[in-house]
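User: tokens in, sequence out, please.
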């Protein structure tokens, strides 16, 4: 594994366990390299956070892109997408628990996220329309209903972790089960057959 990858892996683990305030010195110590060597690869801590954000976006691209590979969308395919999404959010939990702070500290991430959400909203609407075509979704939804549903899905997907941290305090497996149940409850009124 190259040094850059080791830095990112160590940073992810430290941020998840100790919070976003872990420094480049902490990261360098964790993988037994000099701070100078770390700064050769990433000049600032924010550069590491930005690189991790790019990893998150790329992993979500794979999940969303995977939906296009299915000719027929069904509950099983959607459950798999939800589970994959949950795993990404949990793996990068420091980011989602500190989303607002990170966006304020690194305006580029906030800008990228806003652009990404615009793209993702269009992609999710296409997915929901495939559900309609395949008979899994009601066909009488207005554009406003689609917009509202997409917004609810993104709020739940990106911020369930904060709720779990503050209220439910479930472990990873129980949190996934609870998150999947909540997402299904959001979607069920739109489904032709309740899951």
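Assistant: Sequence out:
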């Amino acid at each position: 594994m190259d040094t850059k990858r080791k830095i990112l892996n160590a940073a992810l683990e430290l941020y998840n366990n100790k919070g976003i305030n872990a420094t480049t010195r902490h990261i360098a110590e964790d993988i037994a390299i000099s701070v100078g060597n770390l700064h050769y690869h990433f000049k600032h801590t924010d550069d590491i956070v930005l690189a991790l954000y790019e990893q998150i976006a790329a992993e979500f691209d794979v999940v969303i892109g995977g939906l296009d590979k299915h000719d027929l969308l069904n509950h099983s395919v959607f459950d798999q997408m939800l589970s994959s999404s949950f795993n990404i959010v949990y793996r990068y939990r420091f980011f989602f628990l500190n989303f607002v702070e990170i966006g304020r500290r690194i305006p580029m991430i906030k800008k990228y996220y806003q652009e990404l959400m615009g793209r993702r909203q269009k992609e999710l609407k296409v997915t929901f329309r495939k559900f309609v075509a395949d008979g899994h979704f009601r066909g009488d939804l207005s554009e406003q209903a689609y917009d509202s549903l997409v917004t609810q899905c993104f709020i739940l997907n990106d911020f369930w972790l904060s709720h779990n941290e503050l209220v439910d305090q479930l472990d990873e497996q129980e949190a996934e089960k609870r998150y999947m149940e909540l997402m299904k409850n959001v979607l069920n009124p739109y489904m032709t057959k309740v899951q």
